[in-house]
Every structure is written in structure tokens, then in C-alpha cells.
Design brief:
The chain has 79 residues and is mainly alpha-helical. It is built from four helices and no strands. It is 62% helix and 0% strand. The longest helix is centred in the N-terminal third of the chain and has 13 residues. The radius of gyration is 24 Å and the shape is elongated.
Length: 79
């Protein structure tokens, strides 16, 4: 599946650098842009739920946790 991607509001300096890099590699700026994106994203992996949950547990390990049944009871009592 081929698609188009339009990038707006790039700094002029960034555009110049892209064109210079493309020239060094013998490619058009568009081809260089594609290659940069391909290289950066080819090994990108989506985080799995278990990994994210483990990271969250590490971040919140030192914080006081309120059991869910207490929170539910408080919610019912407020009604």
C-alpha cells in the first residue's frame, strides 16, 4: 500500500539539511525523506500490555494504594 505524507511548517534550516543529505546520497529530497523514515521506523515495536503494566507498577511502587473496594464503597456512600 502506497500513500502520501505531507509535512508542513518545517524550518528552512531543516529543509536545507535534508536537501544536502539527499545530495550526498545521490537521492531526491523526497527519496531521502522516505529513507530516513524507513530507517527510523523499521525496528520500531509496539509496547505490549504486560511491559507497560510492569513499568507502571515500578513507577507507583512507593505510593500509597487504596484498594478498589474502599473506593467503590466511598462512591456508594456518597450517593
Amino acid at each position: 500500500m502506497a500513500g502520501n505524507l505531507h509535512v508542513r511548517n518545517l524550518d528552512d534550516d531543516l529543509i536545507v539539511k535534508l536537501k544536502m543529505r539527499a545530495a550526498r546520497h545521490g537521492r531526491s529530497a523526497e527519496a531521502e525523506h522516505r529513507e530516513i523514515l524507513r530507517q527510523v521506523l523499521q525496528n520500531e515495536t509496539e509496547p505490549d500490555f504486560e511491559g507497560l503494566a510492569a513499568d507502571l507498577r515500578k513507577l507507583t511502587a512507593s505510593r500509597k494504594q487504596t484498594p478498589s473496594e474502599e473506593l467503590m464503597r466511598e462512591g456508594r456512600d456518597e450517593r
